[in-house]
Design the sequence.
């Protein structure tokens, strides 16, 4: 599903963000990516959806070598990858329904299929009753649930989440994790960068720890391993 082979990333200012990363993530896995601030987690995550390119090395996503695809083909690649950010990135002038539907409209899905699929995913994240609300009428947790609904409306094989609970209170964070677990139970691969020690240590999944651009731990049902 996801494979990196000897991946290096050096930014123009000379900072080495990734220093020889090799890893394989299988279909259906749930993987936490942990490590200190500045360790290279965000760069590692961005490589998977071609937000960043490696300086050297090979990255395969769903059998596609990201080094070989043209920039014009990146949107097509991302149709099979759901992305959830810490700051939601919702369109403020669109309703909940419209925010989620937008991902299907850009690929010219039929109106009938759009309505069916949008309502299905809003039901999954328990926001069907707020389909006509606008983002500023929602709590932070509700906005993140809309973001998750938008990320899975295309039935992606992979969902990549970058600190999805970072701006949320503890109770809301657990609600968001429940949704991610249900998505994973349906066979979707989840890769989540997080600083949330309690979540990682409670909901045990595979843990990849990155420090100074290198993978220092890769454990099945691992622990967070850093001070809170």
Sequence:
């Amino acid at each position: 599903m996801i494979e990196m082979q000897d991946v290096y990333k050096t930014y123009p200012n000379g900072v080495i963000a990734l220093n020889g990363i090799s890893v394989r993530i299988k279909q259906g896995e749930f993987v936490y990516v942990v490590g200190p601030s500045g360790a290279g987690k965000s760069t590692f995550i961005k490589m998977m959806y071609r937000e960043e390119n490696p300086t050297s090395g090979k990255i395969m996503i769903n059998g596609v070598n990201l080094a070989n695809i043209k920039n014009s083909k990146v949107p097509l690649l991302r149709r099979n990858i759901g992305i959830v950010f810490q700051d939601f990135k919702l369109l403020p002038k669109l309703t909940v329904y419209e925010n989620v539907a937008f991902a299907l409209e850009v690929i010219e899905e039929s109106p009938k299929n759009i309505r069916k699929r949008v309502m299905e995913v809003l039901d999954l994240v328990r926001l069907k009753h707020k389909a006509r609300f606008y983002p500023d009428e929602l709590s932070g947790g509700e906005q993140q649930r809309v973001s998750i609904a938008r990320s899975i409306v295309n039935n992606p094989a992979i969902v990549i989440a970058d600190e999805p609970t970072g701006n949320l209170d503890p109770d809301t964070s657990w609600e968001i994790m429940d949704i991610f677990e249900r998505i994973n139970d349906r066979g979707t691969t989840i890769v989540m960068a997080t600083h949330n020690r309690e979540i990682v240590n409670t909901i045990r999944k595979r843990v990849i720890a990155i420090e100074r651009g290198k993978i220092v731990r890769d454990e099945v049902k691992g622990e967070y391993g850093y001070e809170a």
Notes: The chain has one domain: 2-219.
